[in-house]
Structures are given as C-alpha cells and as structure tokens.
Amino acid sequence: EEEGAAAPSVSGVYFICPLTGVVVRKDQKEKQLREAIQAYFSVNPVAASIMEIHTFNKDREKVRLCVETMAKYLDNICLHPEEEKYRKIKLQNKVFQERISCLEGTHKFFQAVGFETKTLPVPGQGKNSWRNTTEEFYVLKEEMLSRLEELKDCREQLLSSEPLRAQLHRQPTLFRPSPAAARFELPHDFFSLTAEELRREQRLRTEAVEKAAMLRTRAMREKEEQREMRKYNYTLLRVRFPDGYILQGTFYAQESVSVLYNFVREALRDDWLPFELLGPGGLKLTDENLAFNECGLVPSALLSLAWDAAVTAQLEEQRSPLRPELLAGAQSLS
C-alpha cells in the first residue's frame, strides 16, 4: 500500500439544480428544487405545476392515477366542448378528493390551465330534495373553449412529464502526481447509514467475523459482501494517468463503469484516444455495464489508466493528453 498522509478528498456530495444551475449540498437539494420550481411559476405556471405534481409526490402509483384522472377531465372537455357538465369539477367529489386534491401541485395546475373556483347551487338530496344547496366547483373559463389545442398540449405535458431531479455534481478535480493517491477521507454524505450507525455496524461486524469465519460458505460470504456494498449511495473514484496525474470524480454507487469511461474521455484533449481502466490489483474493467458497487469500487477506489499500445509512443512524444483548463487548475494532494 502506498505511503502518505490522508488526502483531503471532497467536502461532501453536491447536486446541480436543473432549472437554475445552482450547486448545492445534498441536504439542500430538495429546498433548492422547491425554490426553483416556485420561481418558475412566473415564467410558465402550467409547467411549474406539473413539475410540482411529479416531483414532490413520492408515491409514483398515486401520481399515475392522479394524472390519468386529471387528463380524463381535460379529455371530456376537448371531446365535448359544448356540454357544460364537463367544464365543471365538484371539489368534494369522492374521486377528486381521493385521487387529486390530496396531491401537491394539482390545484395549481387546474388554476394554471384556466379553471376558476365558483360556488354553485346543487339540487338537494333525499329528504332535502326540495331545497337547493351550494358547493365549490372548478369551472373552466369560457375563453378557454377557443383554446382547446392549448388544453390538449397541457394534457400531454401532464401525462408525459417525469420528476425533476437534481443532477449529481461530479466535482471533477485533477491532482498532481502524489504518493497519497490511494488515501481517501470521505464525508458522511457518502454513506447510507449515519455516522453512529456505521460505528455500531463496524463494532458488531468485527466481533462476529472471527466467530463466523470458519463456518461461512463462499456463497454466504458473497451475499454478505453484496449487502455491504448496498450501504453506499455514492463513490469517490480516482483515475491515475501514466504520467502520474490523478483525475477525481463523484458518482452514484449504482452507476455503470461506462459512466467513468465517459468521464475520463471528457477530460481528454482528444476524446477518441483508446484506453483501458484497471481496477485495484490491475484487473481490467472490460464489462462497462457493471455497476461500481458490483465491481467493489465503493465507497472509493483508485484506478489506473493504460493507453492502447497503438497510441502509447505517440503520446510520449506529445504534450499532456489532458485538457489545458484541467491542468491549469491541478491541485496537490497532501
């Protein structure tokens, strides 16, 4: 194992808001998304309300049922624009209450596509059938009847949209050659468990290892290793180039090896240059469909890059294959 002091790896896991481009720490991403969507209402209230529905209601089955029911309301209006009954939605209707009203963003959507709230008289029921009462309705504004194509577009957006996701920030960093390349210090963001849970897990595992070592079969050990790998949400990977420079990035533990190959290509002056990545121990990462946690590359790992033999001599004679802006910002590992 390489000698050297522990490297200051990263301060945490960060995400990029897809609406604003703002970079925030993991525990702030939900707040940032909410603020960004809220601000987007002034730009496109229909799109913003759809984002709310798909992003902040976590039960995907409830969301599916909700948007299908909402789409049905719009379908009926577009198919029968002359029939007034389809332009009214009773807010206390059982289906509306159970499928739609309880989900975030739905009321904003109806308002954005042209519905307004009205109190209307309704016939009495049973013993009170002779007496009219009033109830709250959403009623489509008359002007929207001449804009049915817009209503159809809103329906399609509602059905086809996906949750808005903050994008994991790779935090690409280039380090100068260092004997500390294999040393990592990871923040708690990289683990599914809390710090206290991790300490307890480590203590219990240490106590149990010696007792169980002689009894476990290979299959049992592999199953335990897989369970261990699932504890990690993220992984910090470093790729050491033949000239000693080290490229670092943050990834989801479940992402595939192909993502790392693409990450490295984006750091090259010429992204067509053929290369291979070697894991710890020199094992070639040939199956790019494998996830990092399936390869044991979690929660951190140092890999090596080997150029294809056809370009090795050519590269030795030329300038660094890395992009100039990366080289200019290269840092030192201490």
Automatic annotation (TrEMBL):
Major subcellular site: membrane
Recorded GO CC terms: cytoplasm; membrane
InterPro entries for the chain: PUB-like_dom_sf, PUB_domain, Ubiquitin-like_domsf, UBX_dom, UBXN6_PUB
Keywords assigned by UniProt, alphabetized: Membrane, Ubl conjugation pathway
One Pfam family per UniProt: UBX
Record-annotated UBX domain positions: 230-305
Gene Ontology terms describing biological process: response to stress
Compartment(s) of residence: Membrane
Domain of life: Eukaryota
Membrane topology term: Peripheral membrane protein
PANTHER family reported in the protein's UniProt record: UBX DOMAIN-CONTAINING PROTEIN 6, UBX-RELATED
Function recorded in the entry: May negatively regulate the ATPase activity of VCP, an ATP-driven segregase that associates with different cofactors to control a wide variety of cellular processes. As a cofactor of VCP, it may play a role in the transport of CAV1 to lysosomes for degradation. It may also play a role in endoplasmic reticulum-associated degradation (ERAD) of misfolded proteins. Together with VCP and other cofactors, it may play a role in macroautophagy, regulating for instance the clearance of damaged lysosomes.
Subunit and partners: Interacts with VCP through the PUB domain (via C-terminus) and VIM motif (via N-terminus); the interaction is direct. Forms a ternary complex with CAV1 and VCP. Interacts with SYVN1. Interacts with HERPUD1. Interacts with VCPKMT. May interact with DERL1. Interacts with PLAA, VCP and YOD1; may form a complex involved in macroautophagy. Interacts with LMAN1.
Protein name per Swiss-Prot or TrEMBL: UBX domain-containing protein 6
